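>> received
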Amino acid sequence: MAKSVSISCILLIIPLFLLAGAIFPSAFAAHDYAQALTKSFLFFEAQRSGYLPRNQRVQWRGNSGLNDGKLSGVDLVGGYYDAGDNVKFGLPMAFTVTMMSWSIIEYGSQMAAAGELGNAIDAVKWGTDYLIKAHPHPYVLYGEVGDGDTDHFCWQRPEDMTTSRGAYRIDPGNPGSDLAGETAAAMAAASIVFRRYNPGYSAELLNHAYQIFEFADKFRGKYDSSITVVQKYYRSVSGYADELLWAAAWLYKATNNQYYLSYLGYNGDSLGGTAWAVTEFGWDVKYAGVQTMVAQLLMNGQGGRYAVVFDKYQEKAESFMCSCLGKGTQNAQRTPGGLIYRQRWNNMQFVTSASFLMTVYSDYLASARKYLRCASEVVSPAELLNFAKSQVDYILGDNPRATSYMVGYGNNYPRQVHHRGSSIISYKVDPSFVSCRGGYATWYSRKASDPNVLTGAIVGGPDAYDNFADERNNYEQTEPATYNSAPLIGVLARLHGGYSGFNQLLPVELPQLKQSNYVEPKSDTNHSSDSGSTPVDIFQKMTSSWVYKGKTYYKYTAKITNKSSKNLSNLKLYISKLYGPVWGLTKSGDSFFFPSWISSLPAGNSLEFVYIHSASPAGISVSSYNLV
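>> returned
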């Protein structure tokens, strides 16, 4: 990656009346973007690892990876398989969560209008539940379960896995600032999503984000130097500087804490945020993403004393936009059919992520009543959005081959996807064990359509000349990935719902969620204690106090009552502002659970626990629970 010369992009102020209709049409109609959005979330369900919930819609999948982490003494069950294999790679998984969260933050209203906001939130939580498990201690983070070498030797359904499920971690002696930075970003972004719907869970995520960012910044190093088995699959070519800035940007967005704004200002030059003008954005290279976020801050008047530094970030953000449009000094390559082209292997990841940045930036510009000036001409927000739309339309079938690169959308889509689970008959249809090499002999080499349609998957896509071979062994073109789809859901929601009419520079308040659309995995009901309808009642009082060495200590008794008519189980509490010991609960990481002698709380019954510290009452909230 070479540094490019900075381009000073002049933003022109445009009269507001032009933006009312001339800049953005009210909606787009060429493709059924709502249908494509719905299918996208089905793909994430197909990628789930662990115990599948009762509301699982992709029925050909089953439970898998149920002993993940056991050899290391940690519970790492859950999360997502990254692509067509059965490995859980932490860096791309965290990026997937970040981009899904960003999509909801920007376009949650449009998702709600399409009836998909609940599924979007489910998809994020499936990832964050795992990331919480992967962070059992402040300076420990698990970054991989399974390894690519043994996994790629086998062609098995996730339900049949016989490959290594070793777990690999980073810690102070084996740092990984890129992995930790992206995970902190994911936690912070997701905390914004859950702030309204599950405040206790949101606070828990934010606490993890604080700790993981501190870990990333204090113990610096590349994660693939610590987790060496990842090097052939997800090597961090760009290093960790971009992830540190990316995490700081998300923590500022989540908290409005000036420390993180100052971090972006002080470290913009040294960590490359103001220097790198890139033409790609994805799980490895985050510069364009953080530059876009900082540009939003600047357009919103939040630059303050860092305005000069942030202006450099914005120059680079606009250099990225212009390069995608082919109107910069260093432009992204395109196929003859007009698709952004970066590389032969899984090129679509760059198409969807670039399309997302162009979409949000067009809305930022429109909200700021600005245009941008590229090297060759002035570009309106509408033109930027229309180019992003052209990329999505290409994916959905408007291309020289008339092929939809989203599986299950349209009539002409890939039928031989490079994906273990979809290419092998479902264990529910035929539970006969599929062996490691037997899967290659029987299913991988089979020249026929997949027995299970991997609906919503975005495959790697065509080559530089729009050519595409729908063959299972053509992994460069037919393998899907979660990080291909995560940025796309935001763009699809935007194209379906049109311009929201809200100022995208301001914090967007997510719409009220219809509870029927949001079913917590493995739960009949799942709420935060802050939602008025919760059947879990928490009452606490101070029962005694004393002075020791000039300091006043308080003993608090907290009472948890099950107000429902069912048994309460798997209760997970988050306790904030706690500065002392707790008796009567079991602690794991930053969460608290029933004590070991209680498995469930019958209807109408209560449980008490005690804590002591020298402060006012702690904040006790419910992250999740089951009613059975």
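>> The two ends are 55 Å apart (CA to CA).
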